[in-house]
Amino acid sequence: MKTLIICISTHHGNTEKIAKAMAEVLGAILALKRKKKLITVDMYGIIRHPLYISNGLLAIGMAVLFKSMYVFLFSIPYSLSCLLIIYFEEKNLLEKYGEEYKEYRRKVPWRMIPKLL
């Protein structure tokens, strides 16, 4: 991380601004990893992984926007690969939150698409 800051800052001369921005990003990442409370309200009260479905829809939307069959064909396996990621993420969440996550899965049975998946 320090090497990246030094390389960028020597090129632009904005050492302080870049270091501060990198620290904020790193701080946000660490804060997310330390998160203690399981979020079960709002969109998470309907589906357990709204971020992945939004990424899949974004990929499909890009295919429509660029009118590209190649992008569309890529968006399908990309969206389906989220299922593999979700599998491992749910194992991690189950270890981290235990019974609380089991109860959440019972209340919110849909991973990505209500009544389908």
How are the secondary structure elements laid out?
Elements: H1 2-12, H2 15-34, H3 50-66, H4 69-97, H5 99-107
Task: Considering the chains and any ligands shown, give keywords for the structure.
74% helix, 5 helices, Four Helix Bundle (Hemerythrin (Met), subunit A), mainly alpha, 2 domains
What does this structure look like?
With 117 residues, the chain is mainly α. It folds into two domains: 1-35; 38-117, Four Helix Bundle (Hemerythrin (Met), subunit A) (Up-down Bundle). Helices cover 74% and strands 0% of the residues. It has five helices and no strands. The longest helix has 29 residues, at 69-97. The protein is flat and about 45 Å long. Mean pLDDT is 79; it is low at 1-10.
